[in-house]
Amino acid sequence: MSHTAAAPLTGAPTLPDVPTVDLRELAPWALFVGLLSLLVLFFVSADQGAISIPAGTAIHEWVHDGRHLLGYPCH
Amino acid sequence: MTARSFLVRGLLAGLIAGAFAFVVGYTVGEPPIDDAIALEATAAPAAAPDPTAGHTHDHAGTAHSHGDDAGGGISRTTQKTWGLATATIAVGVALGGIVALVAAGVAGRLGRLSLVGSTALVTALGFVAYSLLPFLKYPAAPPAVGSANTIGSRTASYFAFVLISVVAMVAVVALAGALAPRLGGHQAVVAAGTAYVAVVAVAALAMPTVNEIGAFPADVLWEFRLSALLTQTALWAALGVALTWLLGRLESRSRATA
Ligand SMILES: [Zn+2]
């Protein structure tokens, strides 16, 4: 990452190209996985605590210890 | 390499990371949680941290029992094993998916970092922004700490801080990329790091402080918080190691066949 302008030493091996991913191909994946992941994080981290969808305590109780240990406010 | 090939490896690495975090959490985290619940069960009726009438913890088994009171019909044994594993694996897979797609987006675009280097950087910065800095401002609270009356505001503050931290991290990485051609890579990284710390420090000072510890014993609190930090560190570290390994293998295989 540093000083890309520095001239390569003679005889230094050229670095292989790092593969890139086309951002237009990536966008729909990022949107879909992003939303799904946020939903999963919501159920583990906050559901049936501050907000309840669905109402009840079953999800909260099931992931209870994980919620505490992963640092989310539990109760 | 395709977005799909990154994602599949991210989900797999997340599964591994979640399983590893479960082992760590079960080993170091459950003893202090058990201690806290035992304290809560004996001390709750008489010695709630705040003696006002509205400040109950709902420990009587209505809103927040810990299994033994049959609140959700889930036993402590289940909470400690299948419940904890569900939580760590679900979070591991969710974070694995996000990290893998971010890694896909920045691969080959972060200066001269290799695929393994940029993926490791994304995971490390993810740990700092999503887990470490929020932990420093709003450290994990064991059972028996925290008022039911403030769960709404505490949850809002916590996730607002996480959002600020993650958005700031993304922004300063973009800033580093923009500054690098003019300042050079080293100076750009220093400037970006300083900007991130400044933004998060201002947010931490401006946002409300949570202190509802009351008379909770300091040794159990310390043990719990250390174990919570260890569990999260284990998750991110395993995610980083597994994902860089899986992507590194894929890269060398595709290079061999290319
Ligand atoms: Zn709890």
Give the number of helices of chain A: 3
- Given the structure, what is the number of helices of chain B? 6
Q: Quote the distance from N terminus to C terminus of chain B.
A: 11 Å
Q: In which range does the helix fraction of chain B lie? A: over 70%
| Class per helix and strand makeup of chain B | mainly alpha
Order of helices and strands of chain B: HHHHHH
What is the succession of H and E elements of chain A?
Answer: HHH
Integer average pLDDT of chain A: 83
Q: Low-confidence runs of chain B (pLDDT<50, min 5 residues)?
A: 46-63, 67-71
Number of strands of chain B: 0
In quaternary terms, these chains amount to heterodimer
Largest sheet of chain B: none
Name the hetero compounds present: zinc ion
Broad shape of chain B: flat
β-strand percent of chain A reads under 5%
Shape of chain A: elongated
Mean pLDDT of chain B: 88
| Uncertain stretches of 5 or more adjacent residues of chain A | none
Radius of gyration of chain B: 21 Å
Task: Outline the fold blueprint.
The complex is a heterodimer of chains A (75) and B (258).
Chain A: H1 23-45, H2 58-62, H3 64-69
Chain B: H1 3-43, H2 76-106, H3 115-137, H4 151-183, H5 185-206, H6 218-257
Bound molecules: zinc ion.
Zinc ion (ZN) is lined by residues 64, 68, 74-75 of chain A.
Write a short abstract of this structure.
By secondary structure, chain A is mainly alpha-helical. In chain A, 45% of the residues lie in helices and 0% in strands.
Detailed description of the structure:
The complex is a heterodimer of chains A (75) and B (258). Chain A is an all-alpha fold and 75 residues long. The mean pLDDT of chain A is 83. Chain A has helices at 23-45, 58-62, 64-69. By secondary structure, chain B is mostly helical. Helix content of chain B is 74%, strand content 0%. In chain B, helix 1 (3-43) packs antiparallel against helix 6 (218-257) and helix 3 (115-137) packs antiparallel against helix 6 (218-257). The complex binds zinc ion. The site of zinc ion (ZN) has 4 residues of chain A, from helix 3. Residues 64, 68, 74-75 of chain A line the site of zinc ion.
